[in-house]
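Quick start: read one record
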Amino acid sequence: MSTYNFHGNINGPAHMGDHGRIEVNVHGPATEPLVRLAEGLIEALRAEYPVLVPHGEVIHGALMESVGDGGPPNRGRIRSALETISIGAAAGTASLAFTQQFMQALGL
């Protein structure tokens, strides 16, 4: 039995947002916490897996495009980049932790 709450806000110690909570509207534009999460992912990739940085930049670019046009983020591009990062990042690394946070926050 899972103790995760899949309805409404996503919460937990690893999530960003007000008091450990982040509210994601998959039909609206990207939020500032998601953009900051992408920036953190890029920093972690630069330190741990420089070859994967372009995939982090794809995620950041998709989120910034969403902010710019007011539409939802391109979940397909984001999902593809996250899958590539998760294959290349070893367990226990910050890069993989950021990737898992994105997958949970976006419901991928």
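The beta strands are 10-11, 21-22.
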